[in-house]
């Protein structure tokens, strides 16, 4: 009783904040307010002074337009934290923004979603960075688990749930039952790889070099894995490999299907590999209940259909796939007792009974 009252008081005095630290996008949820921030995971750093000059949307707008001493970096590459200091600055920025939206006296309680491929050292770094940024309590959750919670899948029941979260750097394929990951795989084939597939294809086929932003635009506008439907096309502008001058070409959905076919195949194969190591009872649940897609890659037109055809199981796209993880962190914050077993424990706060 007393404990409950104390929790209620704490909720009045401090914010509950959920963070999705994605490789491409970072999102922040504040309990009672909803998603308050959704920006690219980019930080601009001045290399002369080693100072962070911009974070998020502001930093992304600088990409490719900075003087040589300012570099825009994505500190979480391929689901691995490549730069701890910059990641810490990023977390600072996110917490400060969230705290300025809803002012409270105590330091916030924070749930952070991290890519499932990250190591213990990286997990500790995220935890420390979040504490340094003023959090009073930090809980870490693996993103595929948070995504499943965000989709309201019954992850705590003895029932197989399968989630594929295709982000920027990595795709997380996970089978979850009774609050635990039963089988999983983390592959470095996701949105960024499709962008480089598209750039290389255009370079080889049309002999022009396109920028990263152009590749991304082409991907979002003309990718379709569905044959025989309306054909899509777009103009792409790049630099001619031979003359060095700008040139425009027309790129169609058929070009893009060629460009990304190998990566799509790898995603399908990886899914099969996870199914192969899934225990039979759980496999049968998944055959009935289907697979759920989250992350920006879930929006690749026709991917759900292609996957379903290949593995002979239903495949569904989550509602608003880009916000599943952060909404999941919000649900965890509201029911922290129910979900405490799925959170990655803080080694410093776990009492070691063998001592
Ligand atoms: P992360 O969790 O790694 O930050 P997200 O889940 O935010 O990644 O997804 C970002 C990726 O999704 C980017 O590579 C982006 O290009 C891709 N993406 C977003 N919308 C679409 C779309 N409509 N079609 C294909 N890819 C998309
Ligand atoms: Mg993600």
Describe the structure.
GO terms for molecular function: ATP binding. Forms polymers. Belongs to the FtsA/MreB family. With 355 residues, the protein is of the alpha+beta class. It has a domain of 169 residues: ATPase, nucleotide binding domain (Nucleotidyltransferase, domain 5). Helix content is 40%, strand content 26%. It is built from 12 helices and 18 strands. The strands form 5 sheets. The chain has a 5-stranded mixed sheet, sandwiched between helices. A hairpin with a 4-residue loop joins strand 4 and strand 5. Helix 3 crosses helix 4, helix 6 packs across helix 7 and helix 6 packs antiparallel against helix 8. The two termini are 31 Å apart.
What's the structural blueprint in terms of helices and strands?
Layout: H1 2-13, E1 16-21, E2 25-30, E3 34-40, E4 43-46, E5 51-55, H2 57-62, E6 70-73, E7 76-77, E8 80-81, H3 84-101, E9 109-114, H4 120-132, E10 137-142, H5 143-150, E11 161-166, E12 171-177, E13 180-187, H6 191-206, E14 208-209, H7 212-222, E15 233-240, E16 246-252, H8 253-276, H9 280-289, E17 291-294, H10 303-311, E18 315-317, H11 324-334, H12 336-339
Parallel strand pairs: 1-9, 9-10, 11-17, 17-18
Antiparallel strand pairs: 1-2, 2-3, 4-5, 4-6, 7-8, 11-12, 12-13, 14-15, 15-16
The structure holds adenosine-5'-diphosphate (ADP) and magnesium ion (MG).
InterPro entries: ATPase_NBD, MreB, MreB_MamK-like
Protein name: Cell shape-determining protein MreB
GO molecular function: ATP binding
């Amino acid at each position: 009783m007393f404990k409950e009252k104390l929790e209620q008081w704490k909720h009045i005095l401090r914010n509950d904040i959920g963070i999705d630290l994605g490789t491409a996008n970072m999102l922040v949820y504040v309990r009672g307010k909803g998603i308050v921030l959704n920006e690219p995971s980019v930080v601009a750093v001045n290399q002369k002074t080693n100072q962070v000059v911009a974070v998020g949307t502001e930093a992304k707008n600088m990409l490719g337009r900075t003087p040589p001493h300012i570099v825009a970096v994505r500190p979480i590459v391929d689901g691995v934290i490549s730069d701890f200091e910059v990641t810490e600055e990023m977390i600072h920025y996110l917490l400060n923004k969230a705290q300025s939206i809803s002012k409270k006296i105590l330091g916030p309680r924070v749930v952070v979603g991290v890519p499932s491929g990250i190591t213990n050292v990286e997990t500790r770094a995220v935890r420390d960075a979040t504490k340094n940024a003023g959090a009073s309590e930090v809980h870490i959750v693996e993103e595929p688990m948070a995504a499943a919670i965000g989709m309201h899948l019954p992850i705590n029941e003895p029932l197989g749930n399968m989630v594929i979260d295709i982000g920027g750097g990595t795709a997380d394929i996970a089978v979850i039952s009774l609050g635990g990951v039963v089988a999983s795989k983390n592959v470095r084939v996701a949105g960024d790889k499709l962008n480089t597939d598209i750039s290389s294809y255009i370079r080889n086929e049309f002999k022009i070099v396109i920028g990263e932003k152009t590749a991304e635009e082409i991907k979002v506008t003309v990718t379709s894995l569905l044959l025989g439907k309306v054909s899509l096309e777009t103009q792409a502008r790049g630099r001619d490999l031979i003359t060095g001058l700008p040139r425009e070409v027309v790129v169609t959905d058929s070009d893009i299907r060629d460009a990304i076919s190998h990566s799509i195949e790898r995603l399908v194969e990886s899914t099969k590999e996870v199914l192969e190591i899934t225990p039979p009872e759980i496999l049968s649940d998944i055959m009935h209940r289907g697979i759920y897609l989250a992350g920006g890659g879930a929006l690749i037109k026709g991917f759900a259909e292609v996957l379903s055809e290949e593995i002979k199981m239903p495949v569904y796209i989550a509602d608003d796939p880009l916000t599943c993880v952060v909404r999941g962190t919000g649900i965890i914050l509201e029911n922290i007792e129910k979900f405490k077993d799925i959170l990655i424990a803080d080694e410093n706060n776990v009492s070691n009974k063998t001592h």
